[in-house]
Design the sequence.
């Protein structure tokens, strides 16, 4: 979905490096999410934010941190990358209020991260 | 806690035949159920959802899904498969009340439609 963009699209880094993945959206949604996708495991929620001042841990937050710089921007950081963080990372958004209550989420194209 | 199971890693179907991708769920309250599709090198795209009402839900690209409360299932169906339907399909559930607008996804089912 072009309304949700992620940069970079691909990144190769080395163990111990700090890396930031960025997500921007033009949908005007309050809620934003970070997931990682691993083959055979589906999508796992890392962090989510219901507004600029509200950030919550998901299922697998260890080793990750996030920053909600504005309503439209939500970045994910790996402070010291390790090989088992090699995965496909997705950002998603959803509305708040009545529409968002039902949970439909809109996904970015993903960032493929490789940690050597 | 909410959970979703997709028992088949892969489903193979001949073009023109009906297809079914299976999903079962577990929630404490009422379920909100979703199907998403992922094409290669793309993010997930919303297909359809069940919130309440008619157990048969129609969505994008000719897909539909049937909610069965007694069997806790929400299988995705299409009467006539196309080669272009080949993709990775994810079922997701959100519990109501509670759930915090967080979706729990299944592990995905790879659909292959062949000529």
Sequence:
């Amino acid at each position: 979905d072009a309304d949700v963009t992620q940069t970079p699209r691909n990144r190769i880094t080395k163990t111990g490096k700090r890396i930031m993945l960025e997500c921007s959206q033009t949908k005007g949604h309050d809620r934003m999410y970070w997931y990682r996708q691993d083959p055979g495991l589906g999508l796992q929620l890392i962090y989510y934010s219901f507004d600029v001042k509200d950030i919550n841990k998901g299922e697998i937050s260890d080793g990750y941190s996030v920053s909600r710089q504005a309503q439209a921007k939500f970045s994910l950081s790996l402070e010291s990358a390790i090989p088992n963080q090699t995965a496909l990372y997705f950002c998603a958004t959803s509305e708040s209020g009545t529409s968002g209550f039902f949970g439909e989420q809109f996904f970015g194209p993903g960032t493929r991260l490789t940690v050597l | 806690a909410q959970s979703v199971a997709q028992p088949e890693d892969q489903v193979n179907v001949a073009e023109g035949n009906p297809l079914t991708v299976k999903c079962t769920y577990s929630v404490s309250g009422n379920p909100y159920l979703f199907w998403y599709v992922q094409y290669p090198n793309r993010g997930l795209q919303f297909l359809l959802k069940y919130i309440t009402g008619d157990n048969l839900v129609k969505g994008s690209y000719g897909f539909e899904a049937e909610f069965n409360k007694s069997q806790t299932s929400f299988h995705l169906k299409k009467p006539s498969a196309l080669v272009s339907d080949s993709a990775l399909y994810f079922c997701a559930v959100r519990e109501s009340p509670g759930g915090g607008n967080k979706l729990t996804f299944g592990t995905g089912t790879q659909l292959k439609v062949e000529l």
The interface with chain B takes residues 1, 4, 31, 40-43, 45, 48, 50, 56, 58, 90, 92, 94, 100-110 of chain A (CB under 8 Å). The radius of gyration of chain A is 13 Å. The mean pLDDT of chain A is 91.
